[in-house]
Design brief:
Number of helices: 14
Helix content: 25-40%
Strand order of the largest sheet: 3-2-1-4-5-6
Structural class: alpha/beta
Number of strands: 22
Amino acid sequence: MKIIIAGAGDVGFHLAKLLSYEAQDTYVIDFDGEKLEYLNNHLDVITKKGDATSIKLLKEIGVSSADLLLAVTESPNTNFTISVIGKALGVKKTIARISNPEFLDNPCINFKDYGVDFMISPEELAAEEIKSLLHQSSFNDTVAFENGVFNIMGTTLGYKSPILDLTVKETKEKYCLVDFITIAIKREGTSQTIIPRGDTEYKINDQVYFSVPKYSIDKLYPIIGKDHIDITNVMILGGSRVGRKTARKLCNDNFKVKLIEKDKDKALQLAEDLRNTLVIYGDGRDLELLEEESIREMDAFVAVTGDSETNIMSCLVAKSKGVKKTVALVENMDYINISQTIGIDTLINKKLIAASNIFRHIRKGEIVALANLHNVDAEVFEFEVKPNAKVTKKIIRELRFPREAIIGGVIRNGEPLMSFGDFQLQSGDKAIVFCLPEAITIVEDLFN
């Protein structure tokens, strides 16, 4: 595929990084020469300095022969313009990063008629992610496939977990009546992601990811040594776009929400827009204010101001006051992997979420969904199995599946099935696959 990325910011860089693991013909356009130089030094992509709305520039890099144009600059209006021009010049598909929620689901206008095939809003995706995390409060990462038929659940193992120092094989034997597959382990103090085998041991403070069918989620709590936490009262710090969208989504799901905003005019506007949310004008960094607003009675604290350090520190304060669940929005992608070491339940980055959401449009094969886990540099795919695909020819243990990947479960005719070694995939199955970057090409080949 020939792919053009307009914008070398965090979203553009992460997309280019994902594409660099495979033989894609990737071009990145940006005004910022330093960003492009960094890309050239770290990734196998072609960079072009200039304005991505320039018809001349787009023609120079051959937009008419491109399969995909990703407009992911910081300006939604610019992204819209780039997509329209690119489509008019012959690119097959366009995706634009936008911020206006009206554009996402508007029955009055078909934006494809104007050249924008798909639109994504990082703020909308982040708000949806936060809502999902609060629904599964004892886990710090959750991904649902096929409306929750199969789920990826991530958590950090504490000293109460009965599986500490047991191997994966021993654990499965001990909990043989519970359906789950351990798909990944991130060990404390290391950057390496472990694809577990039968002799892999669980250790204290491991970040462990389970693949589990919906009917087994409740049975997973005793295994991880945690109770299900019912979250009702939520405090949100920051009336940003993410804060506003999160408050609205949570109220629609019957959470009781307080939102703190330090800008008076913005607080008044939020109070008018969010009728079911108690909006408080004040500085959320003020401990006295937090105490006055009963932070000790909160079940969850969500910090989504525009300042990453403020979000992290305020979540740590909330934890010290007994809040059970904390979520912090961070701009720096380097922060994502430190949540389990500093005491915050989950750090999220809206640009990383957006890049992963866009990436599913790039994949080869029959991929119907794709997700990114917060603490690991890897992807979770949902493949639809083609007729006569290589994965249908043998049982799983005979497939020579790469060690850097694992099948976490299969959905057949809407029903979840466990994908152990003697399982054989069939045409039409939907397979949940956890995959490190270096194995993506091999896995895709097996599903083709």
